[in-house]
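Dear Dr. H.,

I hope your travels went smoothly. While you were away I took the liberty of generating a structure for the chain from your last submission, since the lab meeting agenda had it listed for discussion. I wanted you to have the full record in hand beforehand rather than looking at slides cold. The sequence, exactly as received, is reproduced here:
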Amino acid sequence: MAKQSWISLDKVILIIGLIIYGTGFSLLYIIFAPLSRSIGLSTNQFGILIAISNVSLVFSSYFWGKKSQSMGRKPVFIIGLFSYAIAYALFAFGIQIGLWGLLASWQLFSLLFIIRLLYGSLIGGIQPAATAYISDTTDETTRIKGMALIGMASGIGTIIGPIVGGGLAFIHPIFPLYFGAGIAVLGGILSMKFLIEPKQQTPVSKTGNLKFYDKRIMPYLVGWALVFLVFTATQVIAAFFIEDRLGVATQSNIIKATSISLLSMALTTTLMQAVVLQIIDVSPKTLLRLCFFIFGSALFAIPMVTSLAYFYLAFAGIGIAFSMVTPGLNAAATMSVEPHEQGEVAGLLSAAPVVGMIFGPAIGALLYTTNPSYPFLFGSVVAIVLGIYFQFVKIPNI
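The corresponding predicted structure, in token form, is as follows:
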């Protein structure tokens, strides 16, 4: 099959949509974490609200990934972006109701709980449609570069999120969230106009029935689930760590410090994926046998930091690890299955991190209430064990 040109307008539009998606995720951590206490939510309730949408997202990701095999990558991607805009705006309004003090604490928690469930159900098509799109438009020699673009988009979104959060929060603490919903609408419109439906490598009539326990892809799904369990367990309590351990006071300063930490992580991720991995030809095997040890080392260092500067440096190390995780796991998994299974494997690759995200926030919050160091030490152990495991996994090589 003839491939489309490497960096073309359709891929640029796809990346823009993913950047918008990533921006919303980082905004949520930056804005909602410090506000959660202001609207009367406990640390555990905050963790549950972050996690609950991921329960429905696990199932919706697989559903939409498989649906993209018959409906097409473009329609599924567009539906996801517009749904994301609606659900994100609803959640912002729910937080606004909390700031107004119109509901009792349990009523507000129940409302936000329902909105988060709806959010997870509606946005499931964005990531799998994008992953399958890249699989359709790359071959084995360019798969790492293509999947690096997906990771790069998330990194750029994480860069933009802190800028938006820090730059627009002075208007109103909730305003950045409404802004996130607005740019999702813009992304949907651009995708409708400019995104080109790729030619799938097999007829639509030929569909697969890929299971998550298929031995070809199981290691990569386990990798994604555990990486995001650790990632969310540590990210959701970052603002609390900055306040309680590093002594940063006032909401605005906590938001600023949290923004800078995520920004430092995103900058290293983006630099690696946009430049280094586009220049250097590297195999999934090499990436996966290095990245988890880097991840574990950075997490292990965080409980020992005594200043914000070292905290930011540790997050930069996490960014280097993540720049290798995304292309490594996604490229290896998509290269391990048949062309007619690309939609399903994309759905599973998108669902697997969400499985980790279901448990990560609650685990992080629970460990943090015991000792602020425990979420990072727990994550370090899990990452290093993963690194050892992938030394023995048979990984596709170029």
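Two observations you may find useful: Residues 9-38 form the longest helix (30 residues). Confidence is low (pLDDT under 50) at residues 1-5.

With kind regards,
E. W.
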